[in-house]
Structures are given as structure tokens and as C-alpha cells.
Amino acid sequence: MSFEEEWAGLKADAAARMQLNSVPAEGPGAGPSGGDLVVHDDELGKIGHFAYRLHNNLKADGKHARTTTEAAGTSLASDGFEMGKALTAASKAWDKQVGTLTDSCAHISNHLDFSKASKKKDDEWVAAQVSASKIAGYYDVPEEDTKPSIPKAEGPIM
To answer: Residue 4: CA atoms inside 13 Å, Cβ hemisphere, count?
Structure first.
């Protein structure tokens, strides 16, 4: 079997299993986890808190050896050791990876805070709409065709 044939088969298998922005054809609850996504505020809060703590700890502790590693790399490179260049390159790569990870943690924490606030606003809007519709039910507002007709005045109105 050639690579192209194997790759086409793998893509077809993945496409058969993938569902984006849709519900299974069998109806809700037919999926492997019951269909609907349910996330509770306390779970979001815990994840956001852990992401925030990880961000702060990485920012403080992830770069603690940066200056000494760079100094050792520079010293070894100046003495003619290739290990010095490699150590300096490793230090720069580590610094870049820590930066990417701290940015990702901040993004997760901020996104969860935004999602939580947005969900709260949506819930408040729905509650306001529901209570407004209940209020309208207490009034006996006749439909347009059942209203009595009011004769219009003829002539000038002074």
C-alpha cells in the first residue's frame, strides 16, 4: 500500500468520525457523552484559577536560571567550547517556550473569565425577557381586529 493510499484512507476515517458545529443525526443524547455540553461555573473557576496560578509561577520560576545559564554559555563559548554555544541556544529556546506557555495560560484564564461574565449577561437577558413576557400575560390587550372602531371627526378640528 502506498503512502497516498494509506493517507487517503486515514483522512476518510477521520472525516467519518468528525462533527463540527452540528448535532448527531440520531438526535440529542446519541453521542458518546450524552450529546449536550454541560460546564458548571465552579469547574470553570477552578480551571481558570489553576491557569492563573500556573501563569504566575511560570513567570516567576520559569526564568530563574536564565542569567546563570547564559553566563555559563558565554563563558564556555569564549573559552572555545562548542558546548557554550549550545547552552546559550538552549537557554534562548527555553526562554521562548516559557514565554509561549505563560501566554497560553494567560489566554486560558482570560478567556474563562470572559466566558463566565458573558454567560452571566446572557442569563440575565433571558431572565429579563421571560419576566417581561409574563408581565404582558397579566394585561388583557385586545387583538387588532377586535378593537372597537373609533369614528374620525369630520371637518376642521380646532
So the answer is: 0
